[in-house]
C-alpha cells in the first residue's frame, strides 16, 4: 500500500511516500526556520501562510523523487493534530481536496503517534509493548505503547517541553532559533560539570519532569554574570544540556523499570540531541534494556512518520471523511 504522508502542524511543510508503512520512497521537508528566526519563535500566522505557499511544491517534489503520480497513491495521511490550528488546516484541506479529486481515501494522523512510529522505519523496529519518550518543541511525555493505537501516558513535563527549554535558553544566550542544535554543538566543546544546574523532580514517586526551574537558573546565572562568551558559553551550554539529558534519561529508565518494559524508544526533535542519545544508550545498556533511536532526520518533523501513523491507523480501521476537523489539542 503506497501512503502519501502530509505534515503541516508547525513550521515544517513536509510530504513523503512510504510503502506499507516501512519503506520510504521519498521524504521532502521544507523548513520555515529562516522566516521565524527573526521573531525568536514560530509565528502562527506566518506559518500558515508559508504552508500554503510550500505545500503543493513539496507534494510535487515528493511524488517526482519517488517516480510516482497521485494515481499510484493508495492512501493519503495528514497530520490533523495536535499543532497550530491555522497550520494544521492547510494540510487537512489539501488532503481532503486530493481525496475528493482522486477518489483516494484519507486519514487524519496524530502528530505524536507519528513521532513514536517513526521507529517503524528502522530495519530492526521494536514490536510493542515498549516505552516511548516523545521529546519535542511542544511535548515531553512518556508513553507505554501497549500496541499500535493503544498508548498510555505515564508521565510528562509539568511545565516547559524540553525543546521549549532549549529554545528559551538559546534566546537568553543570544543564540539563534531553534536553539536545540546550536546549544548541542556548543555543548560538545564545553565542560558539563562547569555549572551545576538543578534537576527538577528527582523523587522516585513521580514519572513527571519539569524544565522551567532549569531555564530560570540559566536566566539567574546570566543576570549575575552576563552572557558568557567563548569557552564559558560552551561550558554553560554543556552544563544545561547535561541537566536536561540527566533528568530525562533517569526518569526514562525509572519508568521502564516500574512498568517492566524491556524496549525503549526516544523520538521527537530533541531525540536528535547528542548527549540525550548517548546517556540514554549508556543507562539502558547498564540495565540490560534495549534502546531504539531513530536516525536524526526522522527525529524532527517529517512526512514519512505521518505516512506510517496513517498506515497503522488505516489498518486499525480508521477512515477519514470530508467532515474531518483539525484538532490542535488532540491527545494521543
Ligand atoms: O519534533 P520537532 O521538529 O517539532 C515539534 O513537534 O515540536 O522538534 C523541534 C524541537 C525544537 O525545540 C528544537 O530546538 C529541538 O527540537 N531540537 C533539538 C535538537 N535538534 C532539534 N534539541 C536538542 N538538541 C538537538 N540537537
Ligand atoms: Zn514534532
From TrEMBL:
UniProt cofactor note: Binds 1 Fe(2+) ion per subunit.
InterPro entries in alphabetical order: ATPase_NBD, Gcp-like_dom, KAE1/TsaD, TsaD
Listed cofactors: Fe(2+)
Binding-site positions, substrate: 134-138, 167, 180, 184, 273
UniProt gene name: tsaD
Protein name as catalogued: tRNA N6-adenosine threonylcarbamoyltransferase
Keyword Amino-acid biosynthesis part of the UniProt annotation: no
Family label: Belongs to the KAE1 / TsaD family.
